[in-house]
What we know:
The protein has 15 helices and eleven strands. By secondary structure, it is of the alpha/beta class.
Amino acid sequence: MKKLSILGSTGSIGTQTIDVLDSIDAQVCAITVNTNIEQAESQARLLHPQLVGVYDEIKASDLRVRLADTDIRVVSGMDGLIEAATLPAVDTVVTAVVGMVGLLPTLAAIDAGKDIALANKETLVCAGQIVMRRAREKGVAILPVDSEHSAIFQCLQGRADNAIRRILLTASGGPFFGKTREEMRGVKKEQALCHPNWSMGAKITIDSATMMNKGLELIEAMWLYDVEPEQIDIVVHRESIVHSAVEYDDGSVIAQLGNPDMRLPIQYALTYPKRVPCKIPPLDLPSLSKLTFFAPDEEAFPAITLARKAAKARGNLGAVLNGANEAAVDLFLRDKITFTQIADLVGKAVEGANYRAEITVDDVLESDRAARRMVLDCVK
Length: 380
């Protein structure tokens, strides 16, 4: 039986992880949340974990009162997240939190010998060289939960020593596929939050609309699969049926297909190498009228170009890119900037960054803070 800690249990990935539990042999020992105390209480009473971590200190006090009739321990802050990630009973940590907040708990979990079911892409974007090196040293597995990275992982099963020529990273194109940059200047957040295929949290949905999400995934794939950024091609695939593909040196392309439902990659990360029945409907190929593929328009979506630059440079530019993007997306969601200003501000932060080729965790955290400050200073 898998013993799980779910970091970010009330978010999109966290709730879907809980949804697949009755299909797999697993027990939840710890969960963490940010501020959604009502849902956290409901999950705690359903799962009865040993521990619940609440990032917000005041909300943690509220949850302690709510759970006073149970033996569930409530902890708070970053220390609480780290405790949940390193709980002795746990063998696998599902990192379903969004943003840089996932970095320190993930590193702590690796140091404690826990396998990682990774949905928090920012961890590898910002500190991939540190995280992957430490995972190798500790002998722990990093199992991808993102649909695209799970697809690549599945396409690599049986690879043996065969060389990869290219990774074909698919993208839905988001709600603004086909629009020019000029046409997107006036879009509202309500439009950007309407994804055509996936139901996700607000931040990742905006990232999909700018296509920054695909840029972040390119950097993540580079670290996960030890390839050069030039070996990763982004392909817009509107139907979201082909979740990604791998091309080998002989020209063979192996793809993973499935309905757009995150429960499959979540479940596979938790049952690997076994496959067990999943709740999602089977793929009905005859019902698909067509599958389409397009090159991305990097002039309309410059976030991809910025991400490629950060990937090629490595060092601290991933942290700069991600920190600036998180700050800019937050400003957009609060109606402080326009949609196209997101990439503009990220570009300024990347161009103005104090570049470091060799990095420590402290360098990553400081680069993240500096990038956020730069974005905020640009809109004062």
